[in-house]
Write a structure and sequence with these properties.
6% strand; disordered C terminus; two-stranded antiparallel ribbon
Length: 145
């Protein structure tokens, strides 16, 4: 039986150590942007607590060439959801559906079968008569000057 040259195990060890440096670095943990639902301070109902977002100025994105999303992406969406939800408990569990109305359902199917449905967007619609500029809009009503 032939024995291996003494330098072969050493070469294999050196190759393994060299290739160990090629391993991909561990990804940082993803930030937690979940909206928390807490009991209201007055004890009635619940409130949606938005997540704390990192500042874009302090964003530690790393190399722009590594094709990774910024850790701040998604936080604004979660903050908007927490600010706009009417009933924060709906984020935990949706409300049960009401009883179906068979007359409305049958009428909508009949309109569809007869080809009398209405498009959601009318491509031939005229432009609005009055355009409201953002600087002219008033809080709460959007009325113009």
């Amino acid at each position: 039986m032939r024995s291996l040259p003494p330098s072969l195990p050493l070469m294999a060890l050196l190759c393994a150590l060299a290739l160990n440096g090629c391993a991909t670095p561990a990804q940082p943990p993803a930030p937690d942007y979940r909206v928390k639902v807490m009991p209201a301070p007055n004890g009635k109902g619940a409130v949606a607590v938005p997540p704390h977002c990192l500042s874009w100025a302090q964003d530690q994105m790393g190399s722009p060439w590594d094709n990774q999303a910024s850790p701040t992406f998604g936080c604004a969406t979660a903050q908007d959801l927490a600010a706009q939800v009417a009933n924060p408990n709906d984020l935990i569990e949706g409300r049960p559906l009401g009883a179906p109305d068979p007359i409305v359902s049958a009428a909508s199917v009949s309109r569809y079968q007869a080809g009398k449905t209405t498009a959601l967007i009318d491509p031939n619609a005229a432009a609005p008569a009055q355009v409201i500029k953002m600087e002219d809009a008033r809080l709460g009503g959007g009325a113009s000057k």
